[in-house]
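seq as requested:
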Amino acid sequence: MKLRNPGPVQPAPTLKGPRGELAETLGRWTGVASFTHWQLGSPGVVDGAEFHVGDPELGHIHLDGSAHIPLSGPIAGLLEDKGFGRTPYWSDAWITCPVRSSGDVTRASWMFELAYTRIRGASDGEVLDRIRSGAGLAATDEARRLSKPATRPVVLDHTGRSSNVCRAAWTVARFSSAQIHTPQNAAPRLEPSSVRL
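struct tokens:
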């Protein structure tokens, strides 16, 4: 289900550290545009950067360091079973993961690549096969470490709910290609390393 973005269309904020590294990587992929991600229920409150390939949302990165990536129920479930992230209570077709270290950037970038391949036409079966084979993640000690379940602290808000729970049902905006502007001095657009089109 697609919901309307609660805020105006504007360029994404500059993210710092590992979140910024991931945002820069996604921003270099062919056809990816970035915009401000608004806090649900609080129009005008910036909550991160979201990324689109045309109309479909590739995913978004929150200011708190969590990434949310839309996939499908079977794909998100397999990623959760393999410990790459968690499905939020509000949708079994999304995966969430922390982006707080370079290892997190590697893991999140790989999952964004999975979403990118789906948007560009790969079937769920092809994406599931990539996950099962580990394609796109180098068979290194770091990749093996990343395949272990992700852990994150639970932060409660003033109502006693998890901060990630409070970010339920994030929104997707529809953007026409006329609204996507690329500066002339922008970095060259790249395909993710493992995407074959």
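The chain is about 25% helix and 15% strand.
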